[in-house]
Amino acid sequence: MQRFTELEKKYALEAIENEFNTSKNSIFNNRLEQKFRDLFNVKYTIGHVNGTQTMHTALAALHVESGDEVIVPPLTMSSTALAVLQNHSIPVFADVDSSTFNIDPASIIKCITGKTKAIITVSLYGLSPDYDKILEVCKQNKIYLIEDNAECFLGEYKGKLVGQFGDFASFSFQASKHITCGEGGMLTTNNENFANNARRFSSLGYAGVSAKQGKITRNDIQNPNYNRHISLGFNYRMSEVNAAVVLGQLERAEELVEQRIKVARIFDQVLDGTNLLIRQNEPMGYKNSYWAYSAILNTENPKIDWYRFRDLFQKNGGDGYYAAWKLSYNEPLFKNEIQKWNGVWQKYNENLCPVSEYLQKRMIQLKTNYWDLSEAEIQAEVLYKTIKEF
Ligand SMILES: Cc1ncc(COP(=O)(O)O)c(C=O)c1O
Predict the structure, then answer these.
(1) pTM, to two decimals
(2) Among 58, 70, 186, 374, which one is most buried in terms of CB atoms within 10 A?
(3) What are residue 60's phi and psi, to 5 degrees?
(4) Is 77 in the pocket of ligand 1 (CB under 6 A)?
(5) Does some domain include residue 1?
(6) Residue 281 CA, ligand 1 centroid: distance in Å
(7) From ligand 1's centre to the CA of 51, what distance in Å?
(8) Does residue 263 have its Cβ closer than 6 Å to ligand 1?
(9) Pair (278, 224) in one structural domain
(10) Residue 75: inside a domain, yes or no?
């Protein structure tokens, strides 16, 4: 199959031919937002430049303030915690579950203080966290929930699409993601007030925008006495060409996601026959959308070592694979920024989240974006051969 088809090209060309003139400047943004609303059965959708600024907008729209605490997992791409810093709030790191690699509700409970305002959950590698338990914690403690679904598209939790649980849900269309236009993002919510705040925050604080509409009328802006900016906002809007390309991808989303699942099933066949690699557990009732295929190296085998395994895999003809990102709190940025903005030194000790520490050192992330399944089969054979050498 092809990752991009004539459809995406046709839409992109149409967006250019519209010349970005003001009367046509949100045709594709509107179509994309509408299609997202229909797919996820949500009331409001706000297109964004990427899936990091979506989360900054969500925090601001929920009135999470400077110095408030937001609970996040550390085992993820750091945008999740970075968005919290961009909002001048404090990321508090909850540990993850050792089998699903996702944020652990029991650890969330331990992180709650009087300053906790929100939790950002991540569906790591395409797999949902345990939303029944997380929603219960949110309800009991009056905490907002933001879903970071950058790595999950059409994944499911107990029969519901991931994206239907939070006060806001965030999506990314960055180049490696299930559906993409290079860079882009979407924020969804069912709350009109939150959606109004989000649209305004992500559109320069314009008075004329609303939950459903990102466009300002020409009549308004032609008036010399028009007050355009009524609150502080950023310019996080998505371009028409990007909206056009990702609309085409959204119309093909099912086949794009299914292809990654097929690749995962090919790797499954290799992992079924070994205990050297332990894959991310997909509990009953969950549907993993496999942005990547992840597993941990079983270091009970004394010969195994992350670098040695990767070198052998590559020598055998493997594409190479990624490690999990460094845990967010181990990145120098987090300690320094917290101190600068809030005057508080957050003590992010080395072993703050022991399960995350353990997993991160042993994790491998295999690509699932093979558009020709025979390429994935070759990689699976290489993986099999490498395992046999231990
Ligand atoms: C879990 C997670 N959150 C957020 C992001 C950020 O998305 P974007 O690159 O669109 O800003 C990514 C990856 O890019 C991600 O993997």
Answers:
(1) 0.97
(2) 58
(3) -65, -40
(4) yes
(5) no
(6) 22
(7) 5
(8) no
(9) no
(10) yes
